[in-house]
């Protein structure tokens, strides 16, 4: 099969790799129908993470080709959406709803890699969810989004306790931040303030439900948020970047007693104890337990209640993966879908 490999920072290629086979009775082998490049793939691409010959891709939808003897919830021919983290679905962490830190968790990047034509999915019952019927072609991007960005934005909004009567600030206008806007809207937040300096992303944020856009960053941005929230800060803040600057913005933009959902992959973030102590906020975040939300997100997409697939601003053949990475790196595209 063909699969995307990152040889070193900035060096993305499509190479041959042996077709995956069933190795454990809990495995499924799926034919990837659609995959994509994640904002988090840009960290190694830009050299912020160490990378050497890594099989790429952790977002995927596909059709089950084969299952091991112990798999009971998905069958060959099923269209499935999977989480970006493998989970067994049975351990105490999974059953509590935190599948992304399952005792048997494995990130799909690296060993598996779904920017490819096929993938072996361990713990298929705990990781994959079948759609009720084979989806219409136009729903595939939205189902693919549920695999990570939509699920992650949803978790962030849930962790931030977005809901009726709440003002939600979204820090970060990448795909996950935009999905946080959409999720907050679905959760009936009253006001959704998106922080963005890019016209294309502002437009999409508005489409997904943002009521206000704040273009300024730093002190000016914070002052504007204070103005919009009667000087109190927001009830709910979604942090979707993962830098020191974005986390400090989230802490400062949140009112005492408020909730922060942080899902930007943390890079050298250090929270000063004094700020944390005096903030009096709830902090909840980390790798999103997307598997917990997949049944609900699949239902919303299949019933055409939401269109998270709008974050894919372009679609390319898998063979052109290098162009997809480059375009996202240059911020020319928000997110690129890859057709194997
Ligand atoms: Zn588990």
From TrEMBL:
<keyword id="KW-0862">Zinc</keyword>
<dbReference type="GO" id="GO:0008270">
    <property type="term" value="F:zinc ion binding"/>
</dbReference>
<dbReference type="InterPro" id="IPR020843">
    <property type="entry name" value="ER"/>
</dbReference>
<keyword id="KW-0479">Metal-binding</keyword>
<feature type="domain" description="Enoyl reductase (ER)">
    <location>
        <begin position="7"/>
        <end position="338"/>
    </location>
</feature>
<dbReference type="InterPro" id="IPR013149">
    <property type="entry name" value="ADH-like_C"/>
</dbReference>
<dbReference type="InterPro" id="IPR002328">
    <property type="entry name" value="ADH_Zn_CS"/>
</dbReference>
<dbReference type="InterPro" id="IPR013154">
    <property type="entry name" value="ADH-like_N"/>
</dbReference>
<protein>
    <submittedName>
        <fullName>Alcohol dehydrogenase zinc-binding domain-containing protein</fullName>
    </submittedName>
</protein>
<dbReference type="Pfam" id="PF00107">
    <property type="entry name" value="ADH_zinc_N"/>
</dbReference>
<keyword id="KW-0560">Oxidoreductase</keyword>
<dbReference type="InterPro" id="IPR011032">
    <property type="entry name" value="GroES-like_sf"/>
</dbReference>
<dbReference type="InterPro" id="IPR036291">
    <property type="entry name" value="NAD(P)-bd_dom_sf"/>
</dbReference>
<dbReference type="GO" id="GO:0016491">
    <property type="term" value="F:oxidoreductase activity"/>
</dbReference>
<dbReference type="Pfam" id="PF08240">
    <property type="entry name" value="ADH_N"/>
</dbReference>
<comment type="similarity">
    <text>Belongs to the zinc-containing alcohol dehydrogenase family.</text>
</comment>
């Amino acid at each position: 099969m063909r699969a995307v490999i990152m040889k070193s920072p900035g060096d993305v290629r499509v190479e041959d790799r042996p077709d995956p086979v069933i190795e454990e009775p809990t495995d499924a082998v799926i034919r990837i129908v659609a995959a994509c490049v994640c904002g988090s793939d840009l960290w190694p691409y830009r050299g912020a993470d160490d990378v050497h010959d890594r099989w790429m891709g952790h977002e995927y939808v596909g059709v089950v080709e084969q299952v091991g003897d112990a798999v009971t919830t998905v069958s060959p021919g099923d269209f499935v959406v999977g989480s970006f983290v493998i989970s067994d679905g049975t351990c105490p962490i999974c059953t509590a709803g935190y599948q992304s830190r399952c005792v048997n968790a494995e990130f799909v990047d690296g060993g598996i890699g779904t920017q490819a034509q096929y993938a072996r999915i361990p713990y298929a019952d705990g990781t994959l969810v079948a759609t009720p019927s084979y989806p219409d072609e136009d729903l595939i991007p939205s189902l693919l989004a549920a695999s990570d960005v939509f699920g992650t934005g949803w978790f962030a909004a849930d962790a931030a306790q977005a809901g009726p009567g709440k003002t939600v600030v979204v820090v970060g206008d990448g795909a996950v931040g935009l999905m946080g806007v959409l999720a907050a809207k679905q959760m009936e937040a009253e006001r959704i303030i998106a922080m963005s300096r890019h016209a294309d992303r502002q437009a999409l944020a508005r489409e997904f439900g943002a009521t206000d856009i704040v273009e300024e960053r730093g002190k000016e941005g914070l002052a504007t948020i204070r103005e919009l929230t009667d000087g109190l800060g927001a009830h709910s803040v979604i942090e979707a970047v993962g830098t020191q600057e974005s986390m400090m913005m989230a802490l400062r933009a949140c009112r005492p007693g408020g909730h922060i959902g942080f899902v930007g992959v943390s890079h050298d973030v250090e929270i000063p104890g004094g700020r944390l102590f005096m903030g009096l906020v709830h902090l909840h975040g980390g790798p999103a337990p997307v598997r917990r939300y997949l049944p609900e997100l699949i239902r919303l997409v299949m019933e055409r209640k939401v269109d998270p697939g709008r974050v894919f601003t372009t679609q390319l053949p898998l063979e052109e993966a290098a162009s997809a990475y480059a375009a996202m790196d240059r911020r020319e595209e928000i997110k690129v879908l890859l057709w194997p």
